[in-house]
Amino acid sequence: MNLRNLSQEELIKKINMLEERIKRQDNEINVLSEQLNWYSQQIRLQQKKLFGSSSEKIVLPDQISLFDEIEIESTPIKAEPKLEEVTYKRKKKNNKRGIDISSLPAVTKIYDLENKNCPDCGEPLRKIGENIRKELVYHPAKYEVIEHVQYVYTCDRCEEDSLKSKIFKADMKASVIYKSFASPSLLSYIIDNKFNKALPLYRQEVMFNQIGLKLSRQTMANWMIKLHDEYFKRMTDYMHKTLLQSEYLHADETTNQVLNVPDQKPTTKSYMWVYKTGRSEDKQIVHFIYENTRGHEHAKKHLEGYHNILQTDGYQAYDKLDDIRHMGCWAHCRRKYLEALDGAPSDTDLKGTASYRLLHKINKLFTLEKKLKGKSYEEIKDTRQKEAKPIIDDFFKDVKECAKVAVEKTKLSQALTYSINQEENLRLYLEDGRIEISNNRAENSIRPFCVGRRNWLFSNTVKGAEASAAIYSLLETAKLNNLKPYDYFEYLLTALTEIDINDDKELEKIMPWSKSLPENIYLTKKS
User: Fold this and answer.
1) Please, which of 53, 69, 329, 524 could form a disulfide with 439 given CB 3.0 to 4.6 Å?
2) Helices of type H across 68-200
């Protein structure tokens, strides 16, 4: 097209059209740049998840580790741990590591000379000392069959006299599962392996088969469901009722795939909801509840009648609950800024970014919390008001200024939005020393379930998922109360056949937080 032949009016119109096209192209370029930036961030974050450290500590370019995990975790041979029988408390004089064996049975083997006369002159030898070497010996698991024989009697005289014949039986302990050879010790062993040590039932089946016991995973799974139906459901219902009487709770959720859920595809995500009492509560409880969705109606049902402090990671389902003081999680807030730093291009000066500056302010709050360990809740509250409040005020002022100029759809903008939306909840811990700075307490209890989930991947049925939730509830509550999981379950499964499980007073005596449990099931020492 020859522009010289155009009139001034046509030329202006043409220029306007070109300007509109350039403006549209600029907008398209900006949108594509934002998309490219977003995808680049996602790629860097996925690489970090796959190959990077899971720690939330910030790692700057000049802090790169040069060693593999094996080199980091291993120690020189001279640092081999010693076997020590600890008989009294003392301050460590050196950095040598010792293993406390005082609670283990010991056998002494004596190595002595048969001939105690000198082979050269024939005179008797004189003992001048001893060389002692200790070994920690492992004995494989031992199984035995106990045959319970109950004698039954009748009276021949009564029968001859046409009186009603009576049957007399010796007292015999009832079996845990009706008409099953499963003992409390065997069931506790299976529970401890699967739910505490994350050993799936199919691996346990292999272990049993290797010692000649043909015990199938289906049988073991059925036992877990029967224990739930007979005992554990009643116990966890009572546990939840007790939990709702607390003044401070944590809550969290994690996915749990269940294959056979009515009217639901096998690939649909189900969830484990977890509730845990706060650190200030007398009765320490963790309760897992299986649900097939993450809908807010479940939170409403679980917490019906609860009107005190609830700490979460900011999931909106909890915001819809009435009369609850909702505390946020500073660890989740911090994680958002870490993701923004992890998603930054490799040539970025991290220390000069808003993400780093805001992250540094949050870290000051966590540093302060470390100094408050061991203090009374009143002292914690006073110190937070004096030292943490100015940091938080400055943090949110900075957040709101950054939000005005932040590029949309970036990790930083998401972190800023999360902070602003959660401000009221994140400030609540300033008002009460009992409240923790983060919801990590709930995450720590949910972690064993997540570790186990990596091994068995999914539950087959709803009943199986519910049984797993109940067993995890009892297991994690036992650990929270300093109990040895195997020993507690063996004690529990023995006691359950001797009490009225529908009597709350009887049930209270065997719950993990009970003060009347036997001393030998407590984990009193660290080895």
Assistant:
1) 329
2) 69-73, 156-160, 184-191
Positive or negative: CA dihedral 218, 224, 230, 236: negative
The number of CA neighbours under 13 Å toward the Cβ of 344 is 23
| Eight-state DSSP code of residue 78 | G
Instruction: Give Cα separations from 268 to 166, 185, 252 (angstroms).
Output: 59, 36, 19
Region for 403 from its dihedrals, namely left if φ exceeds 0, alpha if ψ lies in -120 to 50, beta otherwise? alpha
**Which has the closest alpha carbon to 255: 458, 52, 443, 87?**
458
- What spatial distance separates the first Cα and last Cα of the chain, rounded to whole Å? 89
- Tokens linked to 309: 């402090």
Number of residues assigned to the chain: 527
Structure tokens at 250: 């944590």
SS (H, E, C) 365-400: HHHHHHHCCCCCHHHHHHHHHHHHHHHHHHHHHHHH
CA 504 to chain centre: 28
114 class by beta-carbon count within 10 Å (0-12 exposed, 13-18 middle, 19+ buried) = exposed
Q: Hey, is 9 helix, strand or coil?
A: helix
Helices 485-495, 462-480: axis angle to 10 degrees equals 110
pLDDT tier at 163, thresholds 50, 70, 90 = low
Kindly tell me the burial class for residue 517, based on how many C-beta atoms sit within 10 Å of its own C-beta (0-12, 13-18, 19 or more): buried
Kindly report the three-state secondary structure assignment for every residue of 259-285: EECCCCCCCCEEEEEEEEECCCCCCCC
- Mean pLDDT of the 399-405 span: 91
Domain boundaries, the chain: 184-242+445-521, 269-444
Residue 479 token pair: 């650990």
Cα dihedral: 239, 244, 246, 249 (round 10): 100
Provide the 3-class DSSP secondary structure of residue 88. coil
Q: Give pTM, 2 decimals.
A: 0.76
pLDDT category of residue 78 using cuts at 50, 70 and 90: very low
